[in-house]
Amino acid sequence: xxxxxxxxxxxAGAIFVASISRLGxxxxxxxxxxxxxxxxxxxxxxxxxxxxxxxxxxxxxxxPTLGLDLTFRLDGLGLLFSLLILGxxxxxxxxxRYYLSERDDMGRFYAYLMMFMGSMLGIVLSENVIxxxxxxxxxxxxxxxxxxxxxxxxxxxxxxxMALAVTGGGGLALLGGFLLLGEICGSYDLSVILASGDIIxxxxxxxxxxxxxxxxxxxxxxxxxxxxxxxxAMAAPTPVSAYLHSATMVKAGVxxxxxxxxxxxxxxxxxxxxxxxxxxxxxxxxxIAMFEHDLKGLLAYSTISHLGLITLLFGMDxxxxxxxxxxxxxxxxxxxxxxxxxxxIIDHEAGTRDMRRLRGLWQFMPHTASLAMVAAAxxxxxxxxxxxxxxxxxFAETLYHTNQPWGWLMxxxxxxxxxxxxxxSLRFIHTVFFNGKPVDLPKTPHExxxxxxxxxxxLVALCLLVGMLPTLTVEPILNIAAMGVLQGPVPDHDLAIxxxxxxxxxxxxxxxxxxxxxxxxxxxxxxxxxxxxNLFEFKSLYNNLIDFLFRTAxxxxxxxxxxxxxRMVLVFMLFTMVLGVTSFIDSPSxxxxxxxxxxxxxxxxxxxxxxxxxxxxxVIMHRQRLVSLILLGAVGLGVSLVFVKFSAPxxxxxxxxxxxxxxxxxxLALYFLPQQSPKESSHSARSRxxxxxxxxxxxxxxxxxxxxxxxxxxxxxxxxxxxxxxGGGTNVVNVILVDFRGYDTLGEITVLALAGLGIYAMLHxxxxxxxxxxxxxxxxxxxxxxxxxASFVRLLLPLALLVSVYILLxxxxxxxGGFIAGLITAVALIMQYLANGVNWAQTRLxxxxxxxxxxxxxxxxxxxxxxxxxxxxxxxxxxxxxNWPVIGEFELASAxxxxxxxxxxxxxxxxxxxxYLGFVHKESHTTRVRKRSR
Amino acid sequence: xxxxxxxxxxxxxGCGVYLILRNRTFPVVLGLTFLSYAVNLFxxxxxxxxxxxxxxxxxxxxxxxxxxxxxxxLTAIVISFAMTAFVIVLSLKAYLEMGNDHVDGKHKx
Lengths: 934, 109
Hints:
The complex is a heterodimer.
Chain A: H1 2-20, H2 25-51, E1 56-63, E2 68-74, H3 76-99, H4 106-125, H5 129-147, H6 154-185, H7 190-194, H8 197-202, H9 206-220, H10 229-232, H11 238-244, H12 249-259, H13 261-264, H14 268-290, H15 295-316, H16 319-350, H17 366-380, H18 386-398, H19 409-433, H20 450-468, H21 470-473, H22 475-486, H23 503-520, H24 522-532, H25 539-560, H26 565-586, H27 602-620, H28 625-645, H29 649-672, H30 683-708, H31 716-727, H32 732-740, H33 742-763, H34 787-810, H35 818-836, H36 838-844, H37 849-869, E3 879-884, E4 888-893, H38 894-919, H39 922-933
Antiparallel strand pairs in A: 1-2, 3-4
Helix pairs in contact in A: 1-2, 1-4, 2-3, 2-4, 3-4, 3-11, 3-16, 3-20, 3-22, 4-5, 5-6, 6-9, 9-12, 9-14, 11-16, 12-15, 14-15, 14-19, 15-16, 15-19, 16-17, 16-18, 16-20, 16-22, 17-19, 17-20, 18-20, 18-23, 19-23, 26-30, 27-28, 28-29, 29-35, 29-38, 31-32, 32-33, 33-37, 33-38, 34-35, 35-36, ...
Chain B: H1 2-20, H2 25-45, H3 67-98
């Protein structure tokens, strides 16, 4: 399973690197380097297999019931990319350690870089295309983080957002394409897909699938017309640009073309779509690159142009062109990474990247200049450098289609792009390093630190080695990589520098001389260019599109959300009623069913009438808040009587204790709120609301009536018959809570704890002056803690606690349990606060309620986990009987420990809420502080 | 008895709906409390009305009230307490931050 580790080590490494960065700035750099080497070490054992022309596939069962496996694949193409990602990655890590300044957070940088590296490795090592897509989207996300690394800069943020929007959007298209592809082939495994080229091209979904997949590849590889995100991503730190735009991010797009080449190529649609996009990108980007003033901007457009070249080669649809494409992927990664690093050095040491200000740097940094010159020569395609070889292969391939109509255009366009490439490479070298003396530079330029140049030197050495001794250096890896692309034998090719005076050489010669001429005539050309304006500036188009989207979205929101809660509630209510009425009309049936009715007795009638009068009274008196609150309390008590009547003793107990706590809480809150609601609503508004309320109430009444008069099927029999043998308790409701549906209860106490913490967060450090009088000016009672009540409540405490323990213990068999016991304890303690004052109680009850809540949650969760130790699923309960002396037989169920957890959470949360509401009062706050300061 | 329960639940719902349509926070919190009463009762009676047969296993008893809605409602009561507490504290906080207790955080007048 080494491939799994290769892809996942960098992700683990990201966490590692971020955590060790606290020890010191450079630890994270060392850590990142170690992680990369470790990934390389894990890759190593499989390399020999790949060179023996095998495809390594490793499968790990992930979710077998869904047919999901983690599958990894290593063939020549995957190996080539893995080596590029890791090899150039390690050079970037070294380079960035010198590039980043003291102010930059190194841990964050290297953590993002590791995440990105892992995502890229995941793409090139995936066998399953859906898994590939997940890593694909991860590269979009992690590149977003990398590009926006300097978060304080506006252009970083907007550039990163643009890159995410374009490549992430392309990723969505790719998902659609992969789903279609998987359905066409009947499998999401690349091994199957790559072997089903004929099935794919004859399938009716072929074209939509191809379009979606290409959309994903082209957005990632910044192909025209999606190229605009790449120059804007230059706001990233230079090591990021050097990594993303040479060997990784943008290469993911061409990797996809290479990966799916055997499955998708060979159709006219592939030829036209891919080659024309590549050709357009090649030409347009090379043209724009000549006129860029920003050093990195020039390199960005040159990158786009070279990606266009690679895309064009894949589009040409011949095996030899695919070999050339792979070769150019290697060469471009090498020379572009070194050029970006050189540009970063210049920016770092001269303080600017503007080519209108940079001049004559040769005399300040001859070493860097010579390195940059070699790399630029390679980019231009000068003989003896590696770029020349693949460009020559490219020129030769363009001649292949000349027998077709308009086929002669291809070599001409290719030569023209070559001319542009020579011109912008020349500009890069001549303008920056020669061309007079520098004027008005922010810094006096000098050579960078020794080790900052080492990565560039290594890459430049590779440029020369590959350029001069191609068969000895690059041939083996190129061969197996091309085999991975073609999934078959590699056609004959000759990596020689000299092929004789063939048309391709003439095209190279024309490109070189033409490039020099264009560079010499650049002044009139750039005047012309300025007059035409930048035709291919898509940034404003993109911005308009984004603006339009945001405007439409906010208009839609404004339409639906009138910024008025009342309006929204009104719409919601009306809509609910419309839903109810229409579904009733849709399936009309008799309102009354045929279930027998229970007789009405006088007590029930009386209680119901009192309840309804209290409810209506609350509504009528709602502007007198205190009165309505008291009436509400009466309704709550009435509801608990209803629970008693209908055989729900647990609910009655819960409702009773919750009611007490709720009313106390609301009274506390009301103390700080206005005592009355002003009369604001107009008469018509009130009538309208009353009408809606009556309609809603009638609807619910009819619904309840219709349900209650119908017989029903229940699953309760299972719980009733299994409660004693399975759960060891006779109180079925409690057994359901702590045993059958224990998982739900665990979730519910978590919600309860969260609500308590949320309230704590809102009230924390809040101080309010309590008013000395009510709103009519009547002073509050000066005797805050009446003696009789205070003494009585103190006496009551042990008794109440005893009751709550009793309720907790018996809960499994008789009405009671953690919820009820918790509330009773909370009420008993709250009484102390109310009768004796917050400070009095607080000095005696010093337990931190946060601890109680977390202890409760922990106990409940641990009880659940304990069943793992006995190889049972989470929250499996067990019970046994103990014989205690004196008391007699006593049942002990593991569910009781769970109930104890519930109890603690309820006590903790309730007290946390209520005591903190008490602390809000300024009076109690100041005395508390005073006490502490003593 | 069924009719009585239906009317009761309908009344509680109607009161709740009227109150949550008010423009001050405190009545809205009262309205939400009413709606929780109504919903809890509604859920309970989905197990139909049973008198005098609590779901506590005893000898010589063959019929019990449906325990499942009761278990659901028990946690619902506690959760709605947490919700009410959260909303009332939120309204308190809003009153302090905004200087008034209008549900939209502003004076209409």
